[in-house]
Design a protein that fits this description.
Blueprint (H helix, E strand, L loop, with lengths): L2 H15 L6 H15 L4 H7 L3 H20 L6 H14 L11 H11 L9 H7 L8 H12 L2 E10 L2 E6 L5 E5 L11 E7 L9 E3 L4 E3 L4 H10 L9 H11 L5 H9 E5 L2 E4 L35
Parallel strand pairs: 3-5, 6-8
Antiparallel strand pairs: 1-2, 1-4, 2-3, 4-5, 4-6, 7-8
Helix pairs in contact: 2-4, 4-8, 7-8
Length: 311
């Protein structure tokens, strides 16, 4: 348990007693998730109805962590996280294109699960897990919360498509899996997508679920990405590569590494998908960056360099 979580525990108990923090909203989220779990139909039925209660359980628990974060960041140990989220909420104004390339689903996952602070790399999600014995959670929600905290973005090649079920292969690890993506993304075989997947639960469906709106990598080949990862000491079939890949994709070189790539790399959008070009470590390849074709680009006053309005 990290230093922030240890300090938070004592203050959290005191805040509940003084009614500074309320568990009502968390209890309501717990009830909704439990109802979704009870109603989960078979995999065939899910595909037929084009809906997925497993996604709802993950989304509800992520919402629960977000509600926790809104309250817990009012306490001193998490003030730096509160200030960080506020700053980037105002900068990115998350939503969907044409308003912002940073989707709400990406922003929530990033700020709750990946934006790490301190020497122990603590997030709102890890602080949430440190307090599970004090929160109104059931065993399924605890399992989901742990899966969420272990999750990360990944880059996958689309191998096969059947409705909302996608056969995918992850770059670097070459792992193949099936994922249910409910954003409305249609896709094509051979697409490279940047998306966060979460695993099936015990005794549930046998596929992963896409938790974020997928970003499709355009004008980029698999070889381009393999060269990118090689530049960051992430080379397939080397000792410890999966741990290095996880660390790089989850934390980047700094807290805003991947979110800034999305903001500057934005190219276009389509139904259920956002298009990205370029690479995170090469600003000159990112279409919205001021270093991209500098002779034709200018940073306009009152705007983020990407051209999307601030605030």
């Amino acid at each position: 348990m990290g230093k922030m979580a240890i300090r938070l525990k004592n203050l959290f108990d005191q805040a509940i007693q003084e009614k500074v923090i309320s568990l009502k909203a968390m209890s309501e989220a717990k009830k909704m998730a439990a109802e979704n779990l009870k109603s989960m139909p078979s995999a065939d039925k899910l595909i037929e109805d084009e809906r997925d209660p497993l996604h709802a359980i993950y989304a509800n628990t992520l919402n629960l962590i977000s509600v926790f974060g809104e309250q817990a960041t009012t306490l001193p140990p998490l003030h730096p996280i509160h200030d960080f989220i506020t700053k980037w909420q105002d900068t990115y104004v998350p939503g969907l294109p044409p308003w912002s390339p940073v989707s709400n689903s990406y922003f929530t996952c990033w700020t709750m699960l990946d934006a790490a602070f301190g020497e122990d790399r603590e997030t709102i999600g890890t602080c949430f897990l440190s307090l599970v014995d004090r929160l109104p959670l059931n065993p399924i929600q605890i399992e989901v919360a742990r899966n969420l905290n272990q999750s990360r973005m990944g880059i996958y090649e689309v191998l096969q498509i059947k409705g909302q079920l996608f056969q995918l292969r992850e770059l670097i690890t070459d792992k193949k899996l099936t994922a249910f993506i409910c954003s409305g993304y249609v896709g094509s075989v051979g697409d490279l997508i940047f998306v966060r997947l979460v695993p099936p639960l015990a005794n549930s469906v046998d596929y992963f679920v896409g938790l974020t709106t997928p970003y499709q990598c355009v004008q980029q080949s698999e070889e381009n990405w393999l060269q990118y990862f090689k530049r960051h000491d992430v080379t397939s079939k080397t000792v410890g590569v999966e741990a290095r890949l996880h660390r790089h994709l989850k934390y980047g070189k700094n807290r805003t590494y991947w979110s800034e790539y999305i903001f500057y790399g934005y190219s276009n959008f389509g139904p259920g998908v956002i298009l990205l070009a370029g690479f995170p470590d090469q600003p000159n390849t990112q279409p919205q960056h001021d270093k991209y074709q500098e002779s034709a680009k200018r940073v306009r006053g009152g705007q983020h360099a990407s051209g999307f309005p601030v605030g």
